[in-house]
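Checklist before submission:
- one chain only
- standard amino acids only
- sequence pasted in full

Submission:
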Amino acid sequence: MSRTVAYRTIDAIWRMESPKLIAGLTRMVRDVGLAEDLAQDALVIALERWPESSIPNNPGAWLMTTAKRRAIDLLRRNKVGGRKYEELARHTSLYTEADIDGAIDGEIGDDLLRLIFLTCHPVLSPEAHVALTLRLLCGLTTDEIARSYLVAEATIAQRIVRAKRTLNAKGVPFEMPEGEALKERLSAVLEVIYLMFNEGYSATSGAHWIRPILCQEALRLGRVLAEITQDEPEVHGLVALMEIQSSRLKTRVGADGEPILLKDQNRSLWDRLLIRRGLAALERCRRFGRPPGPYALQAAIAACHAEAASVAETNWVRIAALYEALSRISYSPIVELNRAVAVSMAFGPAFGLQIVDALHNEPSLYGYHLLPSVRGDLLMKLERYEEALVEFERAAGMTRNERERALLIDRVTECEQKVKPSRE
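Returned file contents:
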């Protein structure tokens, strides 16, 4: 295996394993910043050794064992020479290797949920919740997070550093809260789990369009949370949304990993079990008799797609109405962009284009590649191919996902083929 291939493989493994690694280490050392440092140390060692010795059969276990040994060494050294970690050792039960083994080798899933509740503690701002989650649970770099949220990389880096320091300074416990403390954080936790799912469903960057394991983990955490908070309709709404969206994962990419858009997917291959589970969760949400929240509305939109045999048979008028309702209770430019697509399918591309053009000067969409991508698609449907070509070129230049870039370049080529005969 060449070093280039080895490094790419290690990067893929790290993106899959790092959340579990950091969660287990946080339970062990009670400091999320220190846990991330220890996990990074294990990664550095892997980068040094694996290209020479080959990648182990169970790389996740290798990383965990390596990080665990680093943590043991650190605690032993600092019990004698460092007051900070001596204090840490005194206030935890991690006095022996047996204790540490138990802390690391316990139920990782529970640790991940605890880590989410930790990062969603009210001592942190919503912006810090998001940045810390994308960093620790989704494995994104500060640069990738900055590009996603259209802010300076230094700003994101500062948010993450300050968030970790604040959690440590305030002594926020690594535990599942109960009662009012749980409800206080629930909205942020749902947002975090959905962010995690979305990163898996449509990767921000890299060589793969989807990261199924991240979706699976977010869905599993959502199911666990639904059992803990059975009387919260929006939890069931989020689970319904993720169940139905997950049903399409196998059809979102082709044999070579190339993206397959919704209109081109083989619906007979959608996972009917996941769809049934999603519809059941949506029904549980509706039984509460409360007005639907953002996740319930998005789940209802997903259900419209799941219940339609084809794009043509989809109830686009209902989907457009659901997006209108979503926009009223949870407005965002991205919701409006999605509404534009639904409106174009229900009433024609010219109506959708009006909505998209109204978003042209929206600051939060500056640099957001899906804005020119959607506009290009609508222009193509209106046979305005030269304008569409420009939009697809812009979108291709903005995205950091290699698969998505290739898809957009194909659209550029398609436009060029349409434009060329008209110029001759």
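Reviewer check: Residues 88-109 have pLDDT under 50 and may be disordered.
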